[in-house]
Amino acid sequence: xxxxxxxxxxxxxxxxxxxxxxxxxxxxxxxxxxxxxxxxxxxxxxxxxxxxxxxxxxxxxxxxxxxxxxxxxxxxxxxxxxxxxxxxxxxxxxxxxxxxxxxxxxxxxxxxxxxxxxxxxxxxxxxxxxxxxxxxxxxxxxxxxxxxxxxxxxxxxxxxxxxxxxxxxxxxxxxxxxxxxxxxxxxxxxxxxxxxxx
Amino acid sequence: xxxxxxxxxxxxxxxxxxxxxxxxxxxxxxxxxxxxxxxxxxxxxxxxxxxxxxxxxxxxxxxxxxxxxxxxxxxxxxxxxxxxxxxxxxxxxxxxxxxxxxxxxxxxxxxxxxxxxxxxxxxxxxxxxxxxxxxxxxxxxxxxxxxxxxxxxxxxxxxxxxxxxxxxxxxxxxxxxxxxxxxxxxxxxxxxxxxxxxxxxxxxxxxxxxxxxxxxxxxxxxxxxxxxxxxxxxxxxxxxxxxxxxxxxxxxxxxxxxxxxxxxxxxxxxxxxxxxxxxxxxxxxxxxxxxxxxxxxxxxxxxxxxxxxxxxxxxxxxxxxxxxxxxxxxxxxxxxxxxxxxxxxxxxxxxxxxxxxxxxxxxxxxxxxxxxxxxxxxxxxxxxxxxxxxxxxxxxxxxxxxxxxxxxxxxxxxxxxxxxxxxxxxxxxxxxxxxxxxxxxxxxxxxxxxxxxxxxxxxxxxxxxxxxxxxxxxxxxxxxx
Lengths: 198, 481
Hints:
The structure holds 2 protein chains of 2 kinds. Chain A is an alpha+beta fold. In chain A, 35% of the residues lie in helices and 21% in strands.
């Protein structure tokens, strides 16, 4: 039961803008971590771009589940978890983090900010605390049955894309991925097993 | 760009040397991995050492692996010579890249003369077994499932265990100083064994974290306990308790829960032996209670009788303690299961675990209720008594609820009272167990639990699993008297 990344992203009119992110990659092999981090950033940004204002969704990709909430003011957050981690707790976390972030950081900084310029330090400790969902959120068990919020479910990343759009192209163009990661992605796709090679 | 054979040869020589040097420079390397790197950088070694992590750039693997593989096969076919040092380095390299290369490890089954390399090197004393355990541990950081690595690991551990037992049987009746030296040595061996055991558990645990439902890692863990902690109730208890958090954080890891089922079975077997006959002392597996040995030659008949009944009483007490412990184990396991099922709806593994545990309890209770009821005033017999629900039609389970609850409560109270009047007042510590026992799991309580879940859950998978469990209760348990 694990959370891998937690990101706050602004949904701009053309593209999304990463404001702040926290990662826990300790369960990955040491030498993969920087590539994995880049892919998580890439995925999170893409998901926010393709999620409508004021909606929540969960996107499945291999053995990961990416949960996203984009508020009506275009401030969004994505948490990437494994398939065991309870979905409800993820959305509680996203809501909480967005609420706190919007109180701390002025909205004027959202469209153009980046992790270097944004001052919000709590993300790492939230990610760490929520690694154990019950310690972090004792009320979830009670709320689980009451909450009727609608969450859209996507079974693959591809289902977020427009007709004719290819994930490979988006990877190649992405500014979140370094050359090594892009090359690695190409090899893995050829072998049709992204994580096998690792 | 095609590499010429000569270039490959030079490259591989260099890489093998770099790997060997990396281990020399840093004996604390604790992880190996592949660095995603599609192209070689000019004149730079593909071997990277960062902190305690050894990385191999991915571009060179396609050259390295077939070359090294080939070299070993040629050596085996006696077409190519490798000196001892080279053999050690090459097998080491190969195992880090591809541990499922049987030839390199050497799987047991065939006679030793046919098998190669690591085993031979070990048997010749060129390598220490610990080196292979270390190498295996590293290989597992990258290939946590690797069957050959686990198999070889068990072979190496067996070598180590043989060495230990050889030490133990060195002398028959040591006297004086020799006795002291012997007992020191056997203490050292015991410490070493304990350390090795803990190390193995850590290796299994890391591998289980790196790959979910890692059957090979958990099987190894079971093997280790069976061979290195036989009859050691404390180790089993510790494992059961230390695994609670882990399984709570890996609720769909089937192998982790299966391990708990194994631990429960072992504990039940160790804690509860067949009832001792009246002329012998308690089973030697239990914690020692000082029961005087029965020697009819030197005692008067009366004294012998008294000692007999003391032994019987002590045996009976042991059994009660075992019952209590076993009962508590089951209760705690069912509680853990209920807790996780409610907190994390929709995981089949949890329901499957519940089936296993409840079935185990149910079977054990049935097997031992005869013994209990034949033992006159044994109050635990009330707890062990047939599940009251199974005496009537199972469809009446709900209405019988209150009656049963009272009956069970009554049983607990009985236990409290009777314990005080227990004839053997020798050792009050053993008698005092102030905590009243909770209600045992019964068919009725299970139906009540499952009914509650069905009524309240909104998760469709949870509902599906709950219904299946209810059906199982009816068809499997309900039919057995």
